[in-house]
Amino acid sequence: MKKFIKKLSALAFVGTASFCSTFLSTSQQAKAYPYPIPFNNGDTVKLQIANGQQVNMPDNQLFTGGWVGSYQPDNTNDWKFTIDGNGYGVTLHRGGHNITTKDLNPANGKELHAYPRGTTPYNGYSSWVLQPLGNDRYLVKWYNNQNYCMNIPGGIQNRRLTLWQCNSNDSDQVFTITNVNTTPPTNYVFPYQDGQIGAIEAANGIRIGIAANQQYNGGATGLFSSNDYTNARMEVKTNGYGYVIKKANSSYGLSSTTKTPSNGTQTHVYQSGYNGYQSFRLVDLGGGYYHWKFYEDTSKCLTVPLGGSVARPYLSDCNSSSSAQKLRLLQDSSNSSAKYFATLLAGYSTNSDGVLGLITGHSWVATSRFVKTVNSTSVVGGSVIRQSVEWTRDDSTINTFSTWPNSLTPLNPLDIVEKDVAYDLSTFKNYLNGARNYNDATRTVEISKAKYDNTTLNYDSIMGCSRYLIPSANAPGNCVCTTGALRMWKNLTNEDFTSLLYPKDVRNSIISTNQLQQKDQFDLPPL
Fold first, then answer.
1. Which residues pair with 268 in a beta bridge?
2. Handedness of CA 320, 321, 327, 331 (dihedral sign)
3. Is the pLDDT of residue 331 over 70?
């Protein structure tokens, strides 16, 4: 028995029969850029931590492997970086050289260096994700593994920049990013959260929408009245370009027909995506209204016809005094509200039996949002006597979170804390739609909006995983899928299953807990 346990432990460490091993072959999923970029392509910025140290790439280091370090402000241009978005994140470059990682296997202390810019806009070594922390402060996350951030070791001058596990409380990682262009750029603002739902409404009450029979590529965008809560129910999503406007609970959104619109260019319906045709950036006009500037041509703004023969929302020259271009995302509290849920999922694989049957499997967490819409209200004598109420699951705001091993380094498996892994996401949605695998179990608890938002932004730090290995008392950052999921579940719900290690044990505990509350094995958010 001792020999068997020793052999089993060794297998678990190298990742060939480890926890979640059923899915080790799954490759890391591409991540859409999760935050808007408050800069124009080509803007010049400086990156500075709280004690005044700035990111620095001296002229004499503009070669492959050159120095990217920290330095106090001076009169040189060594700290002036050009920022460009590429749909994955941003590049930061000067003198034809990007701030770049040396390899694709991140770890605490891996140094950054200068590398010549390539001919393609995306390079996994040199793309960064800017996570806003407020007041122009950001975590600068490495795109390929967003658990790791740009870091000035010890906040000390003349230190080469490194990657380090992200921590928004670490002053060595929190950068104020300031635009230093001679001509200040347009002051873009980002007042709406990713996934926020409401009505895009002009100052006169006319709403932009998409009718149900127009949800196809090339369909007609439409205009609707201020009491239409169905056709005009829209959602805004953030990407590396700005905001995308899409029909809630669908994959279709508003798009320009060209990157070079003339005055009067109509919008149409197209599969919602992350490109300049569909993206807008906002300028504050006051009173809760904004100019929605077209990303590809910022001289053109989204315009709602206030009369005349133009039947669709269109693009025209921006005019801050035009009421046709004063738009807002309106969430009427009297007509809509939302609930948020967290779901813990766990199951085991039937491909193995005995002790291995306990070990092989998977566990992860999902969050979801449901919206209540009051479609109509009857009022008699000042009292509401009847309401038509609809609760709708907003599939576009479902997120999943899990910890996976890195198959590229099986003998030294740094963790991959992932959001929206394809398997996790599709399995959860299938369960919501009625599918069942009785080797699995789910448990759902209603959570606050603040918990939902914090988990979406800070899932990696909540899980607290630095390596995908069997946990031990001497290394609290070691994780497998169960430990990452159960830490997050405790943070979301205060239910503590963290003493469990095997997916099958988690599954059985979920069933027992549900039964005590007279819930089904598949306890899911309401349809």
1. 220, 255
2. positive
3. no
Looking at the chain, how many residues does it have? Answer: 527
Report which DSSP code applies to 482. H
CB atoms within 10 A of CB 39: 21
Confidence of residue 20 (pLDDT cuts 50, 70, 90): low
Please provide residue 422's backbone torsions phi and psi, each rounded to the nearest 5 degrees: -55, -45
pLDDT at 301: 96
Q: What is the pLDDT of residues 293-308, one digit of tens each?
A: 998 888 999 999 875 4
Question: Whole-angstrom Cα distance, residue 138 to residue 45?
Answer: 13
Q: How far apart are CA 524 and CA 514, in angstroms?
A: 11
pTM higher than 0.70? no
Tell me, what DSSP letter sits at residue 277? G
Going by the DSSP 8-state scheme, the letter that residue 59 receives in this structure is: G
For residue 107, is pLDDT > 70? yes
Q: For residue 424, give every residue at least 6 positions away whose Cβ sits within 8 Å of its Cβ, in sequence order, or none.
A: 345, 364, 366, 400, 401, 402, 418
- Which residue type occupies 76? T
What number of other Cβ atoms are within 10 A of residue 370's Cβ?
18
Rg over CA atoms, the chain: 25
* Contact between 75 and 121 (Cβ < 8 Å): no
Q: Write out the E strands in 120-195.
A: 128-134, 137-142, 148-151, 162-165, 174-179, 188-189
pLDDT at 232 over 60: yes
Q: Which helix (H) or strand (E) holds 460?
A: helix 449-463
* CA 335/CA 414 separation, integer angstroms: 47
Reduced to 3 states, what is the DSSP secondary structure of residue 174?
Answer: strand
Q: Name the pairing type of β-strands 279-286 and 252-256.
A: unpaired
Mean pLDDT for the stretch of residues 43-68: 90
DSSP 8-state class, residue 61: G
By the 8 A CB rule, do 325 and 318 touch?
yes
Q: Sign of the CA dihedral 265, 269, 270, 271?
A: positive
